[in-house]
Design a protein that fits this description.
11 strands; mainly beta; four-stranded antiparallel β-sheet
Length: 116
């Protein structure tokens, strides 16, 4: 069974940083691109970033480019999202996801709240 478990969220002041992690299991992690998305209250899901299976190519949404960095450790089956210069509008539930066959599997998410 494919499982994704996020961690690292919390309350942070504007301008602060957080590093999110996603632990993957149930599939050959190193063979799949991984993504981070978020969902703010009352809004739909927003794609943030994708990293290719080997970790050498990253893609970012304009809203986070230059502030967020995606990375992965294929030896540990984990993907990370380093978030810097956080803004109040970054407040959301953050989750990682993988396109596994015909399914798009996501974790339960980790809450990030940016507030003073």
């Amino acid at each position: 069974e494919v499982q994704l478990v996020e961690s690292g969220g919390g309350l942070v002041q504007p301008g602060g940083s957080l590093r999110l992690s996603c632990a993957a299991s149930g599939f050959t992690f190193g063979n799949y691109d991984m993504s981070w998305l978020r969902q703010a209250p009352g809004k739909g899901s927003e794609w943030l970033s994708t990293i290719n299976s080997g970790g050498g190519t990253q893609y970012y949404a304009d809203s986070v480019k230059g502030r967020f960095t995606i990375s992965r450790d294929n030896a540990k089956n984990t993907v990370h999202l380093q978030m810097n210069s956080l803004k109040s509008e970054d407040t959301a539930l953050y989750y990682c996801a993988v396109e596994y066959g015909t399914d798009y599997v996501r974790g339960q998410g980790t809450q990030v709240t940016v507030s003073s």
